[in-house]
Amino acid sequence: MAEESDLEKTEPASPRRLEQAREEGQVPQSRELSTFFVTVTGVTALWMLGGWMAERMYGLIRQAFVFEREMAFDVVLMLDGFHRLLSGALLTLVPLFMVLLVAAVASPIVLGGLVFSPKALGFNFGRMNPIKGIARMFSVHGLAEMVKAILKSLLIGGIGAMVLWLSKDHLFDLMVEPLEVGMPDFADTVAFTALMIALSLGLLALMDVPFQLWQYHKKLRMTKEEVKREGKEQEGDPQVKGRIRAMQREMARRRMMAEVPKADVVVTNPTHFSVALKYDADKMAAPVVVAKGRGELALKIREIARENKIAMLEAPPLARALYAHCELEQAVPATLFTAVAEVMAYVYQLNYWMANGGLPPDPPDELPVPEGLDPGAPEE
Fold first, then answer.
1. Closest CA to 346 of 363, 332, 360
2. Distance of CA 277 to the CA centre of its chain
3. Which cellular compartments is it found in (predicted)?
């Protein structure tokens, strides 16, 4: 049962999934909304330009009924006259066509936004498969589209027929009106009919847009396994990230251990902490921590120090303070200068004794570690 639930697309599409769908040209679309926008834009254009277009068409019709005798005997003149009338009619309709073109291009942006996808423009042989085409025709989506088309035809046809039926007396009156009066009147009637049809398309769009959005997001739903896989791809596999961090720590530890043979002294707590210090008076303003560790790492630092004959000093409070308050490759804080200075002085004396002999120096005792810097100090 758990495997079946993992395969069910129950999770909403992630932002990345939605972005991938947009890149492939998949955005929510509503034909009814596009048709509504184009129709409303056309009706508005007719309402605003109807008078001008009616006057232009009136003039063209008057020219069409003017017949010169020469045209009857000259085909060229007849064709030239027809060309002038046709050009005039097309130029009259150009503003309307341009407005409709802009509306047709801009209407999909309202729902799906502006999208340009080269993938969607690519040639897809699967779209030419007749079997898949027939399957789409008889699918649930195809049947739903067919039902919508039938209902839309009945609605638009019914409203158009109703408006014409109610206006039949007025339309018959247009036959006896003068042409200059009848043309604007007829244009107003057409615009009113188109407006009623546009309103009916608006009702269809209001019903279709939520359905298309629901269907779009349902199509892009993801399974729980897909959500997990996408999360791993975006944030990285926790196991891989853990291995990377472990490798980084190991590399840092190796670099640190390589610095131990270059140290001047290793300050230790006998069993828990080790801190390696180095000081070069020509290059450094204060001693620098080149390595530090606790537990097994502290033992490893002491082992490398012994192998390379690096001086070691047992000073538990100072070792704990240096471990807690000093970072690698950073100078020791000013609050520990006095204690570290005594350690470095002891190291110089020890090196001098080893080189020249004599009495060995006494290791410093009761190093001055300020109160509050030793995390292992007993509370009073």
1. 363
2. 50
3. Cell membrane
The pLDDT tens digits of the residues spanning 139-195 come to 666 777 777 778 778 877 888 788 778 877 777 777 777 766 676 677 677 777 777
Do residues 297 and 253 lie in contact, with contact meaning Cβ atoms separated by under 8 Å? yes
Distance CA 268, CA 278 (A): 15
- DSSP-assigned letters across all residues of 263-305: -SEEEE-SSSEEEEEE--TTT-SS-EEEEEEETHHHHHHHHHH
- For residue 380, the model assigns a pLDDT of 43
Neighbouring C-alpha atoms within 13 Å toward the C-beta of 188: 10
Contact 210, 26 (CB under 8 A): no
> Which of 76-85, 142-151, 341-350, 367-376 has maximum average pLDDT?
341-350
Both structure tokens of 139: 């699918």
Instruction: Give exposure, 223-254, as e/b (b: 16+ Cβ within 10 Å).
Output: eeebbeebeeeeeeeeeeeeeeeeeeeeeeee
Q: How many Cβ atoms are within 10 Å of 108's Cβ, its own excluded?
A: 19
- Cα–Cα distance, 280 to 238 (Å, whole number): 43
What's the CA gap between 29 and 273, in Å, rounded?
A: 68
Domains and CATH numbers, the chain: 15-114+128-232 (no CATH), 254-356 (3.40.1690.10)
What are the tokens at 252? 């840092």
